[in-house]
Amino acid sequence: MADLLSAWTLPGCLLLLSLLFLFSRKDLGGAFARGASQGLQTMVQVLPTLVLMLTAVGMFTASGAPAFLERLLAPVLERIGIPSALATLLAVRPFSGSASNGVLADLFAGEGPDSPAGRVASVLAGSSDTVFYVAALYCSAGGIRRSRHLLPVACLVMLFTVVMTAFVCSLWFRYAG
Hints:
Number of domains: 1
Distance between the termini: 33 Å
């Protein structure tokens, strides 16, 4: 039954949307075209920022800075109860989602996904975002020029997320496992 439901969910939704589109008294085609046009305009506005951020992330990664930050952060992380294996992930995550996914895969290969570091890394990957990328993209799309407090607050939120992730995971997996 579940196989049948999953096989017909997407075609059923497409059929329902097609019927709504055909029999609606509103101008759904025009609304769709206007939305697509606005989306393309936003994409054109954001594209230079996106290219700049991707170039900066590539340069950051190629410079060896993540490895330097890992060596710098590892002792501090261990001291506050965060597995030192997360140092590279923490150094890369604020800048690049795809690079942090690669680091996460390497961490799983080395430490294992069910290790304490793997568990914390999994929760961190799901509960944090690429701070600098998102800030640059949203400021560019919104036309925000003065963002004095944006990055410091975003970095503090990222730090809070890391500490709370390690704390909650240590409690959860201590009592759940």
